[in-house]
């Protein structure tokens, strides 16, 4: 409420799965997961990446590391633009990637936009990020 923003995923540098693991025994959860307790006191798990919940512990057979920052180069398509929709959080988060667009296999839903043309935009207002993308 203070900065008038909301976010589905916390910024990766603020994400600490071990803090979120309290209801599930204290072992760190994979990136994007949170543990909670239902009305009957049973632990369940929230996957913020694909917006689902499950009673299955995501740490079973989990071998993936959190996504690492990467640099991508996008070209504007005459009809599809850059082929992604971004949210208004800080940092701005990719919400959707258009099938067949120039961002396919480069961006994923949940990706955080940290830099554009070398400029740090982690804390930049959404309007500024949009202007940088358009330019």
TrEMBL record:
This is PDZ domain-containing protein. Signal peptide: none annotated. SMART domains: WW. Residues 71-135 form the PDZ domain. Pfam families: PDZ (PF00595), WW (PF00397). It comes from the Eukaryota. Residues 27-60 form the WW domain. PANTHER family: FERM AND PDZ DOMAIN-CONTAINING PROTEIN 4, FERM AND PDZ DOMAIN-CONTAINING PROTEIN FAMILY MEMBER.
